[in-house]
Amino acid sequence: MVNRKQLNPEAGPVEAFGARLRTSREERGWTQEYLGEQMGYSSQHISAMETGRKPPTLRSSVNADKVFELADTRQSFERAYREIKNGSLLEGFPEYLALEGNAAEVRLFEVGVIPGLLQTREYAAELNNGAVERGDIKPEKAAERVEYLIERQAALVRTPSPLIIAVLDESCVRRPIGGPSVMNKQLDWLIEFADQSNTALHIAPYSMGARRPFNRSVNLLTQADRSIVSYVESQTSGHLDRELTSVLPLVKNYHQVQTDALSQAESVALIKQLRKGTP
Length: 279
What we know:
CATH topology of the largest domain: Endonuclease, Chain A
Radius of gyration: 21 Å
Low-confidence stretches: none
Largest sheet: 6 strands, mixed
Order of helices and strands: HHHHHHEHHEHHEEEEHH
Distance between the termini: 70 Å
Number of strands: 6
CATH class of the largest domain: Alpha Beta
Shape: globular
Helix content: 40-55%
CATH superfamily of the largest domain: Endonuclease Chain A
C-alpha cells in the first residue's frame, strides 16, 4: 500500500485511539471510504483520525461504537474518548486503563490516599472537590472525574474475576478525607473489599521505615498470557512500561512490601480500630 503511515499507539491516547480504529476497520476488510460512509464522514476524515492528526469527538466515537457494535462495552470507543477528554489523565494512563480492564491480576501500591479502584464515590468526590477549591479544575470536571472512576471500577466486575491485591501505606487509612461519615464509609468498604474471594488487602505500617521500597503510586498488571505491565505515577507524571528488565525489579519490590506489610487479618483489625476512632 502506497504512503501507508506506520502508527505508534504508545505515542499518546489520540494515537492509540486512531491505531485501534484502523485495526478494527482492517480486521473487517473495510476501506476508509466504506467506514466513512458508515460513520458519516469522508475517507479523508477517517484517515486523519487513524493517524492521530484529528482527535476523536463524542460524535465520532459514538458513531464508531454503533458501526463496530461496541456500545456499553469495556472496548467502547466512547469510553476511550472520555479518557482522552478527561484532563486528569497522565501520559501512559489511558493505555494502562485499556490493559487493566482485561488483566488477570491487578496489584496496587499507594501512599497518602486510597487508590482509585478502592475509593467510594463520596471519598472520590471529596478529593476532586479539593481540586476545585484549589482552582485546579472546574466543578463540572470534578463530577466527570468521579463518574469516570466509577466506570473504571465497574470494568473490573466481570467473570472470571481478576485477582486484585492492594498494599496501602498506613498514611492512606489515617489521612482524613471529608468528614467522619465519608471516611467511615470508605473504611467500611476497605473491610468489605478484603472479605471478597478475589482480593487481598495489606497495610504497610509506618514502622517499615526505610524498608518500604516505594514512595509513589505503583500498579502492576498481569495479563492472561502472563506478561506483566507496570504503571508508576507521581503527582505530575506517569510511566507505562512493558520492558521485562525494568518491570521485574518492581515485581520483586512489590513482593517485598507485601511480605513485610501487615497480614490481611492484622490490616483489617487496624482499619476497624480506626473506624471506631480508638487510638
